[in-house]
Automatic annotation (TrEMBL):
Keywords: Signal
Matching Gene3D superfamilies: Periplasmic binding protein-like II
The SsuA/THI5-like domain, residue ranges: 45-259
Keyword Signal: yes
Source organism of the structure: Variovorax robiniae
Residue spans crossing the bilayer: none
Name by which UniProt lists this protein: ABC transporter substrate-binding protein
Highest taxon listed in the record's lineage: Bacteria
Record lineage: Bacteria, Pseudomonadati, Pseudomonadota, Betaproteobacteria, Burkholderiales
Pfam families, per database record: NMT1
Record family assignment: Belongs to the bacterial solute-binding protein SsuA/TauA family.
Length: 344
């Protein structure tokens, strides 16, 4: 409850909120109705978003959030760039790809500190697989072409001397459709998130050849910390709606704080039943595998953006690392205030 003195202070500060960042948390929201686009909401990659939504943390911040779920991150990105969504819950590296096209978007709260993406080959279609070179001419399933699952596959292939044009990428989503595509032999390999990859792995459907579901695996693949899922928006949106962005960051960090102590039973009770893909035990096994990859406090690690830029620049000729302003890819201002608020 606000007492009269506090309310008077808030009212007086409201007019200066834009000029004085430190009062964001107390100031009036510029927008209470916010649309968020996400690509594959059922994946653990976006678990903090789901937790914050299901536990009412967005509402607690005064927000009426509408979340639109797309087949993959690249589709969600298109929605935000096209103006049909305000904010994207997507991969950090999209901010790099956008800046390379002179479109300035900024991450303002981190959900994942590792990509949580594994790549595996079908034991049915490729029983004699030995090296990455064997994937030339094959069909590779990704959540959606252009998404982070596609980016990781490109990176893995490039290290084996294979170009993206040497394979066929097929969008299979991040849920039951991905499982079906692999098991039915429609694709020869898959780059995807959990719980899909753990389910395929435990049933012997795939042989894992690259894994960023752990911090150690991420270090091995990328050579450093790799920021993953985040909330990002156009720099213009963030400048015009700083209090709204602060409220969004607060809700996500609140969710991250809850996840730090949540047990398996808590997760099962909170996520929609359809996310379990019909197998609770395997869903929880997947959660155990990716738990450390979930961000703790919403902050982007200092070396993370450089790691992401180096990785993308190594295989994407449209991205010139020397022309990317790393400081414009993200801001930790909102997450720092949220971390202080929730002691995350």
């Amino acid at each position: 409850m606000l007492n009269r003195r506090t309310f008077t202070s808030v009212a007086a500060l409201g007019a200066t909120a834009i000029a004085a960042p430190f009062v964001y948390a107390q100031a009036k929201l510029e927008k209470t109705k916010v649309s968020i686009a996400v690509g594959g909401k059922a994946a653990f990659y976006y678990l903090p978003l789901t937790i914050s939504e299901q536990l009412g943390y967005f509402k607690a911040e005064g927000l009426d959030v509408e979340i639109s779920d797309f087949a993959g991150g690249s589709r969600a990105l298109q929605a935000v760039v096209g103006g049909s969504a305000d904010v994207c819950s997507g991969a950090f590296e999209h901010t790099i790809n956008l800046q390379a096209k002179s479109q300035y978007f900024q991450c303002f709260v981190l959900q994942g500190r590792a990509p949580q993406i594994a790549m595996g080959v079908s034991t049915k279609n490729m029983p004699t697989y030995k090296t990455i070179a064997d994937l030339k001419g094959k069909k590779i399933g990704v959540s959606a072409p252009g998404s982070s699952t596609n980016m990781v596959a490109n990176l893995v292939l490039s290290r084996g001397g294979i170009k993206a044009t040497d394979v066929s990428y097929i969008g299979v989503g991040v849920a039951a459709g991905a499982l079906t595509a692999l098991r039915a032999g429609q694709i020869d390999a898959i780059s995807n998130t959990d719980p899909v990859m753990t389910m395929l792995e435990q049933k012997g459907d795939v042989k894992i050849i690259s894994d960023t579901r752990t911090l150690k695996g991420t270090q091995e693949v990328f050579g450093g910390p790799m920021p993953a899922a985040c909330l990002y928006a156009s720099s213009e949106f963030i400048q015009k709606n700083p209090n709204t962005c602060q409220a969004l960051a607060n809700a996500i960090v609140h969710g991250l704080k809850w996840l730090q102590t949540a047990g398996p039973g808590d997760i099962i009770k909170t996520v929609p039943e359809t996310y379990l893909l019909g197998d609770r035990a395997l869903y929880l096994a997947s959660f155990d595998k990716v738990r450390e990859a979930i961000a703790v406090d919403g902050l982007v690690p200092a070396e993370g953006p450089k790691t992401a830029l180096a990785a993308i620049g190594s295989f994407d000729n449209t991205v010139k690392p020397e022309k990317i302003d790393v400081d414009k890819l993200y801001t930790n201002d909102f997450a720092k205030r949220a971390k202080d608020k929730f002691k995350a």
